[in-house]
Amino acid sequence: MEPLPQPSQATASPAVSGADARLRAQRWDDDGPRSRRGAETRARLVEAAKAVFEEKGFHEARISDVAERAGLTHSAFYHYFDSKEDILREVAAALDHTLNAGVDIILDPTSTATPHERVAAAMRTRLEAHRKEARIMGVIEQVSRHNEQIRVLWTQFYQQHVKEMAHSIEQLQQRGLADPALDPVIVTDALAVMTIRFAEQSLLQDDSGYDFDTAVEQITRIYINALQLREPKKPRRRRDDTG
Amino acid sequence: MEPLPQPSQATASPAVSGADARLRAQRWDDDGPRSRRGAETRARLVEAAKAVFEEKGFHEARISDVAERAGLTHSAFYHYFDSKEDILREVAAALDHTLNAGVDIILDPTSTATPHERVAAAMRTRLEAHRKEARIMGVIEQVSRHNEQIRVLWTQFYQQHVKEMAHSIEQLQQRGLADPALDPVIVTDALAVMTIRFAEQSLLQDDSGYDFDTAVEQITRIYINALQLREPKKPRRRRDDTG
Amino acid sequence: MEPLPQPSQATASPAVSGADARLRAQRWDDDGPRSRRGAETRARLVEAAKAVFEEKGFHEARISDVAERAGLTHSAFYHYFDSKEDILREVAAALDHTLNAGVDIILDPTSTATPHERVAAAMRTRLEAHRKEARIMGVIEQVSRHNEQIRVLWTQFYQQHVKEMAHSIEQLQQRGLADPALDPVIVTDALAVMTIRFAEQSLLQDDSGYDFDTAVEQITRIYINALQLREPKKPRRRRDDTG
Amino acid sequence: MEPLPQPSQATASPAVSGADARLRAQRWDDDGPRSRRGAETRARLVEAAKAVFEEKGFHEARISDVAERAGLTHSAFYHYFDSKEDILREVAAALDHTLNAGVDIILDPTSTATPHERVAAAMRTRLEAHRKEARIMGVIEQVSRHNEQIRVLWTQFYQQHVKEMAHSIEQLQQRGLADPALDPVIVTDALAVMTIRFAEQSLLQDDSGYDFDTAVEQITRIYINALQLREPKKPRRRRDDTG
DNA sequence: CATGAATGAGCGTTCATTCAT
DNA sequence: AATGAATGAACGCTCATTCAT
């Protein structure tokens, strides 16, 4: 009913960077870098860890792999992190926030685009982001299955995504623009899973997968069809967002 | 498996059960059990391995965990399998084939059910199977990322699933019963990913997830909507379509 | 001075076959084969063991290698032998006795050949025997360094060889046919070592070593030179072996 | 090594010490010690390995034996070497080079000693060296039979020895000082085998073997006799051949 | 006599982690 | 801050050996 919450960035960021901030703070107190140089080394380690995890997976990755990639010795690692899990948490926290962006476009009251166009734009944004981060997301999700702390991170992340999208669907249903028989939560979950995993499985950049534009188009169509998304009665005469 | 109307079934099945047979034969020749007792022990090991992998994941699982759960010594394991990968292959090969069943229902020419009913039945079958096997599937998929032999198994498995479903969609499109703008392969891929992962993530039996029936209903609806599945013009004489 | 001891075979055999007999008796009492078939299997095992030891060396050889080569299971081995050392003793005991033959030719009073010819004949016999058995001899000697029981066997074997030859040299020296400044024992030891090891190192049949005839000729020459072997004053007029 | 009159020395030496240098360099680059303390530990390990191999042989030697003897944990070993073979290579490379010294004395043009004296000196040098290193040489040779890399080391080592000596014999033959009927290569091989193995078998320090001086004298005599070594035409006043 | 199943001891190796410098 | 040395725990795997059949 209301003219949409806020730019979702606003909602999304706090959630993630909240966790982020907490983690950093924690580390800072413990054994974080106290000098400029230290901070740089630490950043290099996080970057290296991400790359190594993407390449070899979490379990196969050795701490020395990470350290070496950061141009450090194996034991220097322990100046900054307590364990592999520890640095993975940092990697997760540093993940590009654009992963959770794009959904709000669908309902953006200022937009003059058709719902179809909006969904397409949103899908493109998300798939692009996921395609880029799919590998590390896979790692995080994998680890989350057997590591409590990572699971929390992952869940927070995923739930936020789902919550936003569920809200969008509800809004559309209320305006009579989406199939009212759909359960917003379950459907969102299913479609989110589809998007994320499809990107992870079939859109990895080095994969001989589908043409990206075609994939975006088809996934978009699935969304629109699945939601039975209709054009608002009077598309663009005047603002008609109350349905 | 049941009588298979579609050709794809016919081609696909041998592929998988062929690999299956080969794997078993290989093992049998190599160091498989040569006595009744041995066969039982071997089976116990496979069962134990599945359970352990599901609980701890592949990397965290120790061979002794498997052996002990089967009531054996660590070293007895090596009478039957060469490595953890080896027994995982066996576990994968022994996976309930119902995982790949159900799709053909959709096109079954002998059926008098409406498309909606058919999809619902297929979805239920699949989701039930996946809900049961999701954990181990997750393990297999995880390992497949860094193990060639397992990847082959996984790919064969997944491809078969996708191929069958894509065929169904094409058939429906040709009969004018499904949205002709959809690319059967991409859409199948996306929807298959959705089903499998949704089951894996939100339907695990011990999970506080959704009500299963509701979930089936919603996923079914997504399918039907996504494909824009229509009733055939004159289904049978009369239909008292539930719905 | 005496007309030479006996045909060395006579001396040699008791020594070796004595050990042999003792070993066999021992085994027979313990767990030797009690049936015809058993004896054959046992023989097959010994044969197999020799071959395996020659191929892989003692330490690298596995009991299962031996058993499999004999067409048996690994555990059947234990019906006949207690350990690898055990069967190696048997292999050693069964070694071709011709290894220790040939030396007596040098002094054979019935021979009409020149000393040069006799040495040549003896060398050829020995080198041929050693060339054939060098591999297994090497194994035995190697094991003898750290296994008391095998060391006894090896020493017996080697000492007998040396003793006979030393005797020959003494005889020749007494007849004024060999350099009197040589210490029969040390020289024999050195020359025996040379012969055995040269065969082992440079005459192995599958080796791209020297031409066998040339090698025999050269080794013979070394012997003759080293001993400063001279023709007896009246070579072949009549038997003059009493000196 | 000393000033080398013969060309073979010149060519041969680089070959061996080249391999030597390469091996060391390789290790140094890989995982060699990078500190003073590390270098000492490494040296202690090599020393310990030599001792253990001599005592127990290569196969019987456990890595923990070596580590413990060096006062280290089992796993510390792996900071310096990759495997038992690896450290054996190091032990072999560190072998006293005097093993290959002495031969050149025989032809040394600056020497005023008689050939007999020269050979005696050379033999003494060699036998002393071999007596000291015989055990480890035996181990190396033993391992070389089934290990390619060690075989190369051993062969290089042995070939150099043989090549030098063969050159000496040829020179002597050309000057009419040695039996022209001898094949330099085969004879060298045989005599080298004799020397090395005799030392190994009968001169080990803890062995109840022969008196060392007597042994040297006898081996020397065998050499001189075998080569039919004559005094050069005007070496001393007149030939005073010990008959 | 022979087999297959099962065991237990032991070894090589890896790796995260700690410590002294 | 960073390094190299060192440790200890753990794991995979091999193999000789025993046992029931």
Automatic annotation (TrEMBL), chains A, B, C, D:
Residues 1-40 are annotated as: Disordered. The keyword DNA-binding applies. GO terms for molecular function: DNA binding. The keyword GTP-binding does not apply. Keywords: DNA-binding. It holds the Pfam family TetR_N. This is TetR/AcrR family transcriptional regulator. It comes from Frankia nepalensis. The lineage of its organism: Bacteria, Bacillati, Actinomycetota, Actinomycetes, Frankiales.
